[in-house]
Amino acid sequence: MIDVHIHAVPPNLPGVGPLVPLLRCSGEVVAAELRREMQTAGVTQVFAMGAWNAGEDDPLGINRTLEIAPFVPGLRPIGIMDPVRTDAEHFRRVEQLLARGRVVALKGYLGYLHYEPAHANYRRYYELAARYRVPVMFHTGDTYSPQAKLKFAHPLGVDEVAVDHPNCQFVLCHLGNPWMIDAAEVIYKNLNVWADLSGLLVGDDGYFVSDEGRETIHELVQAVQQAIRYSERPNRFLYGTDWPLVPMAAYREFIRQAVPAAHHEQVFAENARLLFRLF
Ligand SMILES: [Zn+2]
Asked: Does 144 have pLDDT greater than 90?
């Protein structure tokens, strides 16, 4: 089982805290907790989001994740695109990391950063992603920050760049929640658009079995099923959790309900293997 969307370090975004107190802890503590969660849920590979604006020596914000990685078999970093940066030296460093295979994907924080996907400052990243054959993942949908602007985080913005960059693969994180049907339309229409199912709800084990949690899960199961059906592309959906915002095992059970059994193999592993070229 492959989880394509977790956090092992705070994302360092405007108006967003560490997500959960655990991410403030030392790398050793995070690694131990992550290993235990993976084991409990039967997850063998996890891809972790880096931090935005991590400094000159860390152009994709992955250094802290790389420090934790040796202690968590299967952990690999996702580099964060910074649309504020436009200088050649920055992109030279980014390209070096991509050429060395240091990251499995690039990630853009739509909404949190006030840049639309079609903004010129993202273009160079798409070209590099296509050249080094890594997907570009975008936060889409509701944001965790009052400073974010939702219009930048709508999945429709990704349609434009999917058309203009046909050699680049794009992932709509969180299936654009709550705009799931809009996300499904973008997937239906574009062969190079995928979605991850992470972070559709947030809470601990207690929340998942509470009345409110169960009602929310019931509604989300319907919505995800509808989106998969509408898109006509179950081969474009990826399992992800957004851990540590949710417990891995409880979230896995939720996604098992939301994805038709015939597509479990694809969504929990196969689709990710193809997109991230894990063969
Ligand atoms: Zn996330």
From this structure: no
Distance of CA 5 from the midpoint of ligand 1 (Å): 6
Answer whether residue 130 shows pLDDT above 90: yes
Amino acid of residue 232: E
Distant-in-sequence, close-in-space partners of 47: CB < 8 Å, separation ≥ 6: 2, 3, 4, 5, 6, 75, 76, 77, 78, 104, 105, 276
Could you tell me the distance, in angstroms and rounded to a whole number, from the CA of residue 190 to the centre of ligand 1? 23
CA of 209 to the centre of ligand 1 (A): 22
| Ligand 1 centroid – CA 192 distance (Å) | 21
Distance 215 CA to ligand 1 centre (A): 23
Query: What is the whole-number distance in angstroms between the Cα of residue 173 and the centre of ligand 1?
Result: 8
Give the C-alpha separation, 34 to 121, whole Å: 34
Please tell me the distance between residue 195's alpha carbon and the centre of ligand 1 in angstroms: 13
Q: How far is the CA of 7 from the centre of ligand 1 (A)?
A: 6
Q: In what order do the strands lie in the sheet with 170-173?
A: 2-7, 45-49, 75-80, 106-108, 136-139, 170-173, 193-196, 237-238
Peptide bond into 117 cis (omega under 30): no
Question: Does residue 175 contact residue 227 with C-beta atoms inside 8 Å?
Answer: yes
The partner residues of 138 in beta bridges, in order of sequence, read 108, 172
Read off the pLDDT of residues 165-209 as tens digits, 9 standing for 90 and up. 999 999 999 999 999 999 999 999 999 999 999 999 999 999 999
Domains and CATH numbers, the chain: 2-275 (3.20.20.140)
* Burial of 65: CB neighbours in 10 Å, binned 0-12, 13-18, 19+: buried
Query: How far are the Cα atoms of 92, 110, 159, 169, 253 from residue 164, in angstroms, in the given order?
Result: 23, 18, 9, 11, 37
